[in-house]
Design a protein that fits this description.
With 135 residues, this protein is mainly alpha-helical. The protein has five helices and no strands. The chain is elongated and about 55 Å long.
Length: 135
């Protein structure tokens, strides 16, 4: 399985936690008591991420037909992204996630069969979790 490239100064686990945090903020940003919008949360998160990783980013120019450019602009405005670059980065991250999931599924499909995950299996698993058995 191919591992994702990590931002400079972060190991694989830290990068995964950061991506999960970013994803969670995007899902949960519905207004809250402060009345901030999804766009505001994403904007603040984008600023944080940009400040943290700006020194590791490269520039890439992409040519699009007018119809695709208009679509990207609509998505940026309608979904609260600050820039088209943020939107494209999100698309790339989702594609990476899909590719990683596909690799995991193929690895699992190619592995040797194990015991069935039936009611008894899940009961035993719950028991181990309740008693702190981490084996």
């Amino acid at each position: 399985m191919t591992m994702m490239a990590c931002p400079e100064g972060m190991d694989q686990e830290q990068a995964l936690v950061m991506r999960c945090f970013c994803h969670d903020v995007q899902i949960r940003a519905g207004g809250g008591s402060s009345g901030e919008s999804v766009a505001s949360y994403r904007g603040n998160l984008a600023k944080f991420c940009h400040q943290r990783y700006s020194r590791t980013m490269s520039t890439m120019n992409i040519s699009l037909p007018d119809s695709l450019k208009a679509y990207v602009d609509e998505q940026v405005a309608g979904r609260g992204f600050g820039t088209s670059s943020e939107y494209v980065r999100e698309l790339i991250r989702k594609d990476q996630d899909r590719q990683n999931l596909r690799a995991l599924l193929l690895d699992g499909a190619g592995s040797a069969p194990t015991a069935p995950a039936d009611k008894a299996y899940f009961d035993a698993l719950r028991g181990r979790v309740r008693h702190g058995d981490r084996r």
